[in-house]
């Protein structure tokens, strides 16, 4: 059969165009940028815009855990890193009551490492075998306060105590803690130095407020009245026994001697606590009623020293195995120990046994140094 040159030429042109079209498509696909998830547009599943976003992360983001220890470790690391725990697959964790068990694991974390209590709460959600936890952080630690939050700025334990003393009353006091290194437990222990045994002061759970409460059977107004009364009594004692020419140590000795000489121990603490008035645990019992137990002696010394310009704190622990309270105060730049209860009845004429001691006998006294040393810094 005779070939037509024009037909052959047309066929050749069509073949070339088809080949060029195929190269163009292949080149375009190779040049496109890769998908962030490692899937090309053509390989991704079709979008289902009508479906709501899933509440739990996808399978690739779930942390499988084999037991309670692994859950506890994830909670611990999340708190230390100030992040939220990853969603966990607990199908192999052996939890009988997942919500309760995980809550208990969180409590164990903060009990074993009290410095992590800035994670003050945990919300738990379990859906099938998926565990989702939300940690709630104190704003001062996370550095995130609510917009418009206005609180007294606190950058140390001393400022915290001073702020709490200055605002004692029935209403909470907003505080903006600015030092993220402050420990929640240390702050609450420091606040025990406020209130003279009457008003109890503590941080709110999220650490953004100071809150005051009165002992059972008393109102805040009762406590404030008692504190005002004992403050006036303390000023009268200072005016009576302290003179301008005294050194700081002489002032301390005169005030300490007043307490040991004039206050008797309330034996009702031993014979029948039900008959002992609450005031015996406070400076009011010591300075007004002249009868107190160790708490009253210690609170009286603290109040007198502070109003005379001598830094002083109460210390709780044990003395010969019995619960006890005494003082540590700063004289001439040095922190020294005082125990007016042990020196009761002495005028100091021949010296005191427990006045301005550089050290305490550890076979007699026991206390938690970690509770005291932060106050002295």
If you had to describe this structure to a student in words, what would you say it looks like?
- By secondary structure, the chain is of the alpha+beta class.
- It is built from 12 helices and 14 strands.
- The chain has helices spanning 5-31, 68-80, 98-112, 139-142, 157-166, 184-191, 220-241, 248-262, 268-271, 283-287, 294-307, 369-376; strands at 63-64, 88-89, 119-127, 130-137, 152-154, 173-177, 200-203, 209-213, 264-265, 291-292, 312-319, 322-331, 334-338, 365-367.
- A hairpin with a 2-residue loop joins strand 12 (322-331) and strand 13.
- It starts with a helix and ends with a helix.
Keywords:
3 domains, four-stranded mixed beta sheet, 14 strands, disordered N terminus, alpha+beta
CATH topology of the largest domain: C8orf32 fold
Kindly estimate the percentage of residues that lie in beta strands according to DSSP. Answer: 15-25%
What's the arrangement of strands in the largest beta sheet? 1-2-4-3
* SS content category: alpha+beta
Number of helices: 12
The coarse overall form would be elongated
Count of discrete structural domains: 3
Task: State the share of residues found in helices, binned by percent.
Answer: 25-40%
Instruction: Give a quick account of the main beta sheet: strands, pairing sense, barrel closure.
Output: 4 strands, mixed
User: How many distinct beta strands?
Assistant: 14
The low-confidence parts are 1-60
N-to-C span = 111 Å
* CATH architecture call of the largest domain: Roll
What is the H-and-E element order? Answer: HEHEHEEHEHEHEEHHEHHEHEEEEH
Rg is 35 Å
């Amino acid at each position: 059969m005779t070939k037509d040159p024009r037909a052959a030429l047309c066929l050749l042109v069509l073949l070339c165009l088809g080949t060029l079209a195929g190269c163009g498509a292949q080149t375009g696909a190779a040049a496109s940028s890769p998908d962030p998830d490692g899937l090309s547009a053509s390989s991704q599943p079709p979008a289902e815009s009508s479906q709501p976003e899933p509440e739990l992360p996808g399978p690739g983001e779930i942390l499988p855990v084999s037991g309670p220890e692994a859950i506890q470790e994830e909670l611990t690391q999340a708190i230390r890193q100030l992040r939220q725990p990853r969603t966990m697959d607990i199908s192999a964790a052996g939890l009988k009551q997942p919500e309760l068990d995980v809550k208990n694991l969180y409590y164990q974390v903060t009990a074993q490492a009290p410095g992590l209590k800035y994670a003050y709460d945990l919300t738990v959600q379990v859906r099938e075998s998926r565990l989702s936890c939300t940690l709630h952080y104190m704003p001062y630690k996370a550095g995130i306060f609510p917009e418009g939050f206005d609180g007294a700025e606190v950058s140390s334990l001393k400022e915290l105590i001073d702020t709490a003393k200055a605002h004692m009353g029935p209403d909470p006091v907003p505080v903006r803690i600015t030092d993220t290194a402050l420990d929640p437990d240390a702050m609450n222990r420091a606040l025990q130095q406020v209130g003279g045994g009457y008003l109890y002061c503590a941080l709110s759970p999220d650490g953004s407020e100071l809150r005051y409460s009165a002992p059972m059977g008393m109102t805040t107004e009762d406590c404030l009245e008692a504190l005002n009364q004992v403050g006036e009594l303390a000023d009268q004692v200072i005016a009576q026994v302290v003179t301008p020419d005294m050194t700081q140590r002489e002032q301390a000795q005169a005030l300490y001697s007043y307490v040991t000489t004039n206050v008797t121990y309330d034996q009702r603490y031993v014979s029948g606590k039900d008959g002992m008035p609450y005031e015996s645990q406070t400076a009011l019992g010591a300075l007004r009623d002249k009868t107190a137990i160790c708490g009253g002696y210690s609170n009286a010394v603290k109040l007198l020293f502070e109003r005379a310009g001598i830094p002083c704190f109460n210390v709780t622990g044990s003395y010969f195995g019995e619960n006890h309270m005494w003082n540590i105060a700063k004289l001439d730049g040095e922190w020294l120990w005082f125990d007016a209860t042990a020196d009761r009845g002495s005028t100091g004429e021949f010296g005191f046994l427990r006045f301005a001691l550089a050290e305490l006998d550890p076979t007699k006294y026991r206390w938690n140094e970690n509770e005291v040393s932060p106050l002295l810094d």
